[in-house]
């Protein structure tokens, strides 16, 4: 079975939402007061939960459209690329040449897994 393009797009969107969710968890944790109410009422942490809920919905939608797990799940690894870009934007975390090399290996791996 060939994986439909829409399933690949859904997984790329899921990867983006996953990275945004990670950013929201990190930034929410930095501002949380350490109490249960501080965690439950923190807008950034709640935003992270919404992002991960969206990831789940996109996963289900992609599989419903006929996507193959062995093709799609490596695409979700782009979460690491999106997270690095968000960290660069939000925190000024540099993306080193070795990081770029790892990202290129991820993309190459996704290509070969999808063939």
Structure characterization notes:
- The chain has 115 residues and is mainly α.
- It contains six helices and no strands.
- It is flat and about 50 Å long.
- The protein starts with a helix and ends with a helix.
Secondary structure: elements and pairs:
Layout: H1 5-31, H2 36-40, H3 43-64, H4 69-76, H5 79-91, H6 97-113
Give descriptors for this structure:
mainly alpha; flat; 115 residues; 6 helices
Q: Strand count, sense and closure of the main sheet?
A: none
End-to-end Cα distance, whole Å, is 12 Å
Helical region count?
6
Please identify the structural class as seen in this structure. Answer: mainly alpha
Morphology call: flat
The amount of helix comes to over 70%
Radius of gyration: 16 Å
| Strand element count | 0
Mean pLDDT: 91
Percent of sequence in beta strands: under 5%
N-to-C SSE series?
A: HHHHHH
Uncertain parts: none
Brief synopsis:
This protein has about 120 residues and is mainly α. It has helices at about 5-30, 35-40, 45-65, 70-75, 80-90, 95-115.
């Amino acid at each position: 079975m060939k994986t439909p393009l829409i399933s690949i797009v859904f997984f790329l969107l899921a990867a983006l939402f996953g990275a945004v969710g990670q950013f929201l968890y990190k930034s929410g944790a930095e501002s949380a007061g350490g109490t249960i109410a501080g965690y439950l009422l923190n807008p950034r942490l709640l935003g992270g939960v919404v992002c991960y809920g969206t990831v789940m919905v996109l996963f289900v939608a992609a599989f419903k459209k006929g996507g193959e797990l062995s093709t799609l799940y490596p695409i979700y690894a782009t979460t690491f690329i999106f997270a690095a870009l968000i960290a660069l934007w939000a925190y000024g975390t540099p993306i080193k040449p070795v990081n770029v090399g790892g990202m290129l290996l991820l993309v190459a791996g996704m290509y070969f897994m999808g063939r």
